[in-house]
Amino acid sequence: MNSPDDFGFEDDAALLKRTARRLLETRASTDALHRLVAGRVDATRECLWDQALWAELVALGWTAIAVPESADGFGMGLPAICGLIEEVGRAALPSPLVATLCATYVLRACDSPAAEALLRRVAEGAAVSLAGTDARGSWEHEDTDVTATSSGGAGSNGQVTLDGVACYVQDAQKAEVFLVKARAPAGVGLYVVDARAPGVTVHPDAILDLTRDQARVELRGVTLPADASVAAAPPDGPRALRAAEPAMLAILAADMVGAAEWQLQTTAEYARTRVQFDRPLGFFQAVKHPLVDMMMKIDEARSLVYDAACSFEHEPAHAELRARMAKSSASDAAAYCSSRSVQLHGGIGFTWECFVHLYFKRQKHNEVLLGDGAYQRAKLADALIGPIGGTRACA
Length: 395
Hints:
The protein is an alpha+beta fold. The chain has helices at 11-27, 30-37, 51-59, 78-91, 97-109, 113-123, 226-229, 237-273, 285-314, 319-344, 356-368, 373-385, and strands spanning 128-131, 146-151, 159-170, 177-184, 187-194, 200-204, 214-225, 230-232, 275-276, 279-280. The radius of gyration is 21 Å and the shape is globular.
């Protein structure tokens, strides 16, 4: 299958991206972001976000863009979604949108009435987060600390009881629904759990990224009707997660590209206006050369993001490899741009009042989600050249 021109980034995608930028520049400026999340230095466990803005984004249909038309969504392609998420990253927007879009792609890969019903809820604005990481931080598709026990037989009388803890759940305090990975006797499945269900407890983590919240989700005797809660019956959970992973990696990489673009533009503007030794900082090679390097790393990562998004839609056989390349490149660009944005702001760059720390922390958080650059390159090595000496690179 041949890929379309411009990575499949069509006119409707460009319109969505432009509209998102104008809206977020107006409603979610960096000044407003700093006031919202950095008003106190000890707010590392709090869930600070603009719920009125989130309601506005839901009304605009942002949660529905990845939902298929058959489930009352817009069914837009991944290139359009990556364009939107670039703008979300550029604004460092505190919202459950990234987590919800990642969960949406997992639900799309499931084949069950429960998955379709939740997709319809997402199209209406429900925030969903994946609860699929174990206590070791492993996202590998078979790893989970949650168990699922079935009872009552099949059909409408059947029940599923979940017990265990899911760790590192993103935007857990904002989520209305969790998509929980759990191990049953037949294998790993995916289960739809209401965040307010009896037996569900959210324990917020203390994290550096002030634009997100993260938590451990404890499930103790959470009993659910099987016909309404099993999104992917065991052992089909890992297949659905594998199918969705390229889209999830591309979305996270797009967020990093957008944040890195803000870091570049903000730092370049500072270098143009800050005068030292009777010269703008940008006059000095020690400043201008790193800025050019930032631009080149961002352009490389952006190209790989849209190539991965295009492959997901048009060349699925190559989607995983290209998504890992995008996540690897974006993670490295994020690390470089973060360090240079702080350093090139000089002494003020290390202060709480300077906005760059908000992006630095978001980028560091993004880097490790679903594996940093080194992890992705090890996965690529395993896929392209195979295990070396009988040991997998990611073992």
